[in-house]
Design brief:
By secondary structure, this protein is of the alpha/beta class. It folds into 3 domains: 352 residues, Glycoside hydrolase, family 3, N-terminal domain (TIM Barrel, Alpha-Beta Barrel), CATH 3.20.20.300; 234 residues, Rossmann fold (3-Layer(aba) Sandwich), CATH 3.40.50; 115 residues, Immunoglobulin-like (Sandwich). The chain is built from 19 helices and 25 strands. The protein has a 6-stranded mixed sheet with strand order 10-15-14-13-11-12, sandwiched between helices. Strands 1-2-3-4 form a 4-stranded mixed sheet. It has a 4-stranded mixed sheet with strand order 8-7-5-16, with no helix packed on it. A hairpin with a 2-residue loop joins strand 24 and strand 25. Helix 4 runs parallel beside helix 5, helix 4 packs antiparallel against helix 14 and helix 16 runs parallel beside helix 17. The chain is globular, with a radius of gyration of 26 Å. Bound molecules: beta-D-glucopyranose. The site of beta-D-glucopyranose has 8 residues, from loops.
Length: 753
C-alpha cells in the first residue's frame, strides 16, 4: 500500500459521517468557476475539489480558454496521438484555472446521425472510439487532472434523453456501446459519468448491473462514478447501484446565480445538517420552462439525493454504511491520484517524510492557459480533421486565385454546438479573416458575400430567450442579404468557396440532416454561376448534400473551433494535406439504421435498438442502406498505391503504401476484419460483413513509400454470444482487408484463429 492509499484510509477513519456525506454530493462553488464543486475538510487538510466541462475546452464562466475543434473533428484525423495532446492541453488549462476533474471525453457511440451531441463524440465504430477515448484519458491525466468518460451508457440521442429507455440487446451493448468505456477504464480513467437515459428500463444512475457489475467489477474501474447533472434519480437505489457522487447537488437557480461580492447569503456546502440551504437568500424559483428542450433536460428537482437523505437511508438500514465509506474513498482516491491531497500524485508519492515528498518529482503540475502551443495544436487538429469528400481538381487553390467567399456566418469562427461543451476562446480566426490572410499574402483577392440569413447558434443556455430574428449581436441585420449578390461575386471570381453550417445543441436532436435556412439554394445558385465551386461544411455530423454532383469540391470541416479560418485556408491552399477521414458514414437520412420511430426517437418512452450491431458502416455494408460517402472515406492531394500486404502474426498486418504523386501526403491506412463463413446457420450469429480492426496514419513524401504495421483489435474477431453468455471467437480463416475506407479496400490477406 502506498502512502496515499494509507492517507485515504486514515482520512476515512477521521472523517465524520457529515463530512463523508459532504464529499459525495456537490455544493455551490464560492468562486463560481467550477461546473461541480466539493468543499474540502479544512481540519483534515482535504482541499476543495472542482469538476469542470468539457470536451472542446475548459468552460469556466467569464474566463476564456483555448477553443479546440470538436472531438469528432479530432477523430477524423484517425491519429489518437492528437487526442492525447489535446487532452493534455485542456487539462493544463483546467489546472491553470484551479480545476481538478475534466468532464470529458464524451464517447457515446454515434448511432443516429441526428443526435445533437454527435460533435462531442468520436465515431460510429467502437475500435476508433476506444482508441480516441483511451488517448484522451491518458492525455488529461498526464497533467494531474482526472478524466471523466461520459455518458455511461447508450446516451445516443438528445430527444427525451432524460427519460427515454434505450432497449438494447446485451450483444449490441458489449460489441458496440461498452467497448469505448472499457478502453477508457483500461487507460486509467479516474471518474465515469452516468447517462441521463435508462437502459432496458432502468435509469443509468440506478443501474447496478452496468455500474457495479460491469464497470466496477468486470472492467475493474476503481475511480468514482458521478451522476450527470441533475441525473441522480433516487437515494437508495442509486447508492446501492454503485453511484458514488451526486452532481451538482444544488438547485438550478443556485447554479445560475453569479458570484456575489458578499457570499454570506449562500451556503458553501458547510451545512451538513441536511437542510437545503444552498439557495441565494432572496428571489427564488418559479417553475423552470425548458420550452422546445423539454424532455432533453433533466428534472431540476433531482439535486438532493446524496445529502441528508443518504444519511437517513443509512440510518434506516437501506444503504449500508460501508457504501458511504466506499463512495468517499473513491472520491478521495482520485484526489490523491491527481495530486490534490498534499500536492503529491498518489502514483509518485513515496513513503518518505513530508519534506522529501514535497521535493519529489511527484509535485502536482500548475497548468497553463491558452499558450501558443495550445493554439497551434487547436489549429493543427482543425486542419488535419477536415475531410475532402470530393475534389475534381479545383483544390488546392492557386496561391493567387481570386476567390468569392460566400456564406452566412463568415464573420465568426464555428466553435461548436450548444450546451455544456461551449467554449469561449481568447482569440479566434473567423472564416473570412483566415481566407483573406492567406489569399492576399500571395497576390490573390477575396470578395465576401453573405448570400443568405445568418444561421444562429442554438443553446440550452438560451432557453426562454426570444429569437434574435436576423438581428446580430453587433446590431447589424440580415435584411439586405441576397443570393443574387453571392452569385454576382461567384461569377466574377476564379473560384467560389461557400461555407455552410448546421445548428446543433445538447438537449435536442437535429430535426433532419438538411442544412438549415436557404443554404442548399445558395450552394445551387453559386454552383450554377461558377463551375469551380468548393463547399466547406461545418457540422455536428453527417448532412445531406443534394448539390454534391454540381460542385467541384466538398470539405467536411466539422466544428473547427477558434482556428476556423486559418485551418480552412491551410487545407484549401494545400499547406496541409487533407488527411481527415470520415469517422461516421454520410448518407441521406432515409438510408440510416434506426429509421423506424420505435428505434428512434422511440415510442412511449422506449427506443428499441432493433438494429442490434448493425450500426454505421455495419448497416451499410450489409446492404441495408446506401452510403453517399463510406466510413473512413476522404481524399488526399497526393495519390497512394497499396502493395505487399502480409499477416505478420494473428493480430498484426503490414502493408506498403506508395505515394505516387508529386506532392507529399498523409495517408490513413485502415484494416478491416471479415469473419470466416459459418459452417451452419445455427452456428453463427448474424455478423457484420467487416469490422475495423486497426488503422495507422503515415506521412509519405512524394515518390516515396512506407511500410505500415497495423495491430488488429480483438474486438474485430470476437462476437458476444448471449446464448453462451460470453465472448467467443469462431475458429477459421479471417480475411483482413486493407485500404482507404470501408468502401475502398485495396488488398487482402488472412489470419487464422
Ligand atoms: C451534460 C454533461 C455535462 C454536465 C455539466 C450535462 O447537461 O450532459 O455532459 O458535463 O451537464 O455541465
Amino acid at each position: 500500500m502506498d502512502h496515499q492509499t494509507d492517507r485515504v484510509r486514515e482520512l476515512l477513519d477521521e472523517l465524520t459521517r457529515g463530512e463523508k456525506l459532504s464529499l459525495v454530493h456537490g455544493h455551490v462553488d464560492p468562486t463560481r468557476t467550477a461546473t461541480g464543486y466539493l468543499p474540502g475538510v479544512e481540519r483534515l487538510d482535504v482541499p476543495d475539489f472542482r469538476l469542470v466541462d468539457g470536451p472542446l475546452g475548459v468552460r469556466v464562466p467569464g474566463t476564456p480558454s483555448t477553443a479546440f475543434p470538436a472531438p469528432l473533428a479530432a477523430a477524423a484525423t484517425f491519429d489518437p496521438e492528437l487526442s492525447r495532446q489535446k487532452g493534455a492541453a485542456i487539462a493544463r488549462e483546467a489546472r491553470a484555472l484551479d480545476q481538478d476533474v475534466l468532464l470529458a471525453p464524451g464517447l457515446n457511440l454515434i448511432r443516429v446521425p441526428h443526435c445533437g451531441r454527435n460533435f462531442e463524440y468520436f465515431s460510429e465504430d467502437p475500435v476508433l472510439t476506444g482508441a480516441f477515448a483511451a488517448a484522451s484519458v491518458e492525455g488529461v491525466q498526464s497533467e494531474d487532472v482526472i478524466a471523466t468518460p461520459k455518458h455511461y451508457v447508450a446516451n445516443s440521442q438528445e430527444t427525451d434523453r432524460a427519460v427515454v429507455s434505450a432497449d438494447i440487446s446485451e450483444r449490441a451493448l458489449r460489441e458496440l456501446y461498452l467497448p469505448g468505456f472499457e478502453a477508457a477504464v483500461d487507460a486509467g480513467a479516474g471518474s465515469v459519468m452516468t447517462a441521463y437515459n435508462r437502459v432496458n428500463g432502468t435509469h443509468m444512475s440506478e443501474h447496478g448491473d452496468l455500474v457495479t457489475d460491469v464497470l466496477k467489477e468486470e472492467f475493474g474501474f476503481d475511480g468514482f462514478v458521478v451522476s450527470d447533472w441533475y441525473g441522480t434519480e433516487s437515494t437508495v437505489a442509486a447508492a446501492n447501484a454503485g453511484l458514488d457522487l451526486e452532481m451538482p447537488g444544488v438547485s438550478m437557480q443556485a447554479m445560475m446565480t453569479p458570484a456575489m461580492e458578499d457570499d454570506t447569503d449562500i451556503d458553501d456546502g458547510g451545512d451538513l445538517d441536511g437542510e437545503r440551504s444552498d439557495e441565494p437568500a432572496d428571489e427564488m424559483p418559479e417553475e423552470m420552462d425548458f420550452g422546445e428542450l423539454e424532455g432533453g433536460m433533466p428534472d431540476p428537482e433531482n439535486y438532493d439525493q446524496f445529502g441528508a437523505a443518504l444519511g437517513e437511508a443509512i440510518d434506516a438500514g437501506e444503504v449500508p454504511e460501508s457504501r458511504l465509506d466506499d463512495m468517499a474513498a473513491r472520491v478521495l482516491g482520485q484526489m490523491a491520484a491527481a495530486g490534490a491531497l498534499d500536492g503529491i500524485r498518489a502514483s509518485e508519492a513515496s513513503a518518505g517524510s513530508e519534506d522529501e515528498r514535497s521535493e519529489s518529482s511527484g509535485a502536482r503540475t500548475d497548468g497553463a492557459l491558452d499558450t501558443d502551443e495550445h493554439r497551434e495544436l487547436a489549429s493543427e487538429i482543425a486542419a488535419r480533421g477536415q475531410v475532402l469528400l470530393e475534389n475534381d481538381g479545383v483544390l488546392p487553390l492557386a496561391d493567387d486565385a481570386d476567390v468569392a467567399l460566400i456564406g452566412p456566418n463568415l464573420d465568426e469562427p464555428t466553435l461548436g454546438g450548444g450546451g455544456s461543451s461551449e467554449t469561449t476562446p481568447v482569440e479566434a480566426t473567423t472564416t473570412a479573416d483566415g481566407i483573406e490572410a492567406r489569399a492576399t499574402s500571395e497576390g490573390g483577392s477575396v470578395t465576401v458575400a453573405q448570400g443568405v440569413q445568418r444561421i444562429e447558434d442554438k443553446s440550452i443556455f438560451d432557453v426562454g430567450e426570444d429569437d434574435a430574428d436576423g438581428e446580430h449581436a453587433d446590431g447589424g441585420s440580415d435584411a439586405d442579404v441576397s443570393i443574387d449578390d453571392a452569385v454576382a461575386a461567384a461569377e466574377a471570381a476564379d473560384v467560389a468557396v461557400v461555407v455552410v453550417r448546421d445548428q446543433a445543441t445538447e438537449a435536442a436532436d437535429r430535426e433532419d440532416l438538411r442544412l438549415p435556412g436557404e443554404q442548399d439554394e445558395l450552394v445551387e445558385a453559386v454552383a450554377a454561376a461558377n463551375d469551380r465551386t468548393v463547399v466547406a461544411i461545418r457540422s455536428s455530423g453527417p448532412v445531406e448534400l443534394p448539390w454534391r454532383e454540381d460542385v467541384a469540391a466538398v470539405l467536411a470541416s466539422w466544428y473547427p473551433g477558434q482556428a476556423d479560418g486559418e485551418a480552412l485556408a491551410a487545407v484549401c491552399y494545400g499547406d496541409v494535406d487533407p488527411s481527415g477521414r470520415l469517422p461516421v458514414t454520410f448518407a441521406p437520412e432515409s438510408e440510416y439504421p434506426a429509421s423506424e420511430p420505435e428505434q428512434y426517437p422511440g415510442v412511449d418512452g422506449t427506443a428499441t435498438y432493433e438494429e442490434g450491431v448493425f450500426v454505421g458502416y455495419r448497416h451499410f455494408d450489409a446492404g441495408r442502406g446506401e452510403a453517399t460517402y463510406p466510413f473512413g472515406h476522404g481524399h488526399s492531394y497526393a495519390a497512394f498505391e497499396y502493395r505487399d500486404v502480409e499477416a505478420v502474426d494473428e493480430s498484426t498486418v503490414a502493408v506498403t503504401v506508395a505515394n505516387v504523386a508529386e506532392r507529399d501526403g498523409r495517408e490513413v491506412v485502415q484494416a478491416y476484419v471479415r469473419p470466416p463463413e459459418a459452417d451452419s446457420a445455427a452456428d453463427e450469429l448474424d455478423r457484420p460483413v467487416r469490422e475495423l480492426g486497426g488503422f495507422a496514419t503515415v506521412d509519405v513524401p512524394a515518390g516515396e513509400s512506407a511500410r505500415v504495421t497495423i495491430s488488429l483489435d480483438e474486438l474485430a474477431f470476437q462476437q458476444f454470444d448471449e446464448e453462451q453468455a460470453g465472448w467467443t471467437t469462431t475458429d477459421g480463416e479471417y480475411a483482413v482487408e486493407v485500404g482507404r475506407s470501408a468502401g475502398d479496400l485495396r488488398l487482402e490477406t488472412s489470419v487464422d484463429r
